[in-house]
Amino acid sequence: MSEPLTVEVVTAWLADSPFISFLNLTVESLDEKAQTVTMKMPMRPELERAAGTGQFHGGPIASFIDTVGDYAVAIVLKGGVPTINFRVDYLRPSVGTFLRGKATVRRLGRTVAVVDIDVTDDQGRLCAVGRGTYSAQVG
Fold first, then answer.
1. Which domain holds residue 42?
2. Residue 2 in domain
3. Quick one: CA torsion of 28, 30, 34, 38, rounded to 10 degrees?
């Protein structure tokens, strides 16, 4: 049995991607047994819907959802997996200094994994929900 992954290892994985590095995501927690991961995405002017609003654009939110969902599978399989499909429901404007995403693997089958992702703002309000389908094959 391999050693459980640490926040530091997953943080290094994030740093390997120029796009994820641009989003400046940080890993807050991960639990391989519960198949969950929580990450944070800080607000930056480049991520705003309109200049000076402090409101996150939907594109970075969707990317955040996809990434957090992917890593919930990756911590179990010990490596990155391709996205098959994902959807996003935006529930309210996402404003504040950061967004927090918590992903939970709902099913990890032989070939496909299904993950639910909740996104909250810096006040703990649910802003968006996502569901991702990922390959269950590291690649």
1. 7-135
2. no
3. 40
Angstrom distance (rounded) from CA 138 to CA 102:
21
What would the two tokens of residue 91 be?
A: 């529930």
Distance separating alpha carbons of residues 97 and 137, to the nearest angstrom: 35
Q: Tell me the C-alpha distance between 61 and 134, whole Å.
A: 18
Asked if 62 and 88 count as a contact pair (C-beta separation under 8 A), the reply is yes
**What six digits make up the tokens of 44?**
């930056």
Placement of tokens 């919930």 in the chain: 72
Assign residue 32 the CATH number of its domain: 3.10.129.10
Q: Is 112 exposed, middle or buried (0-12, 13-18, 19+ CB in 10 A)?
A: middle
pLDDT at residue 80 in the model = 86
Which pair of structure tokens corresponds to residue 15?
A: 């740093």
- Each residue's pLDDT tens digit, 37-80: 999 999 999 999 999 999 999 999 999 999 999 999 999 999 88
* Three-state SS at 135: strand
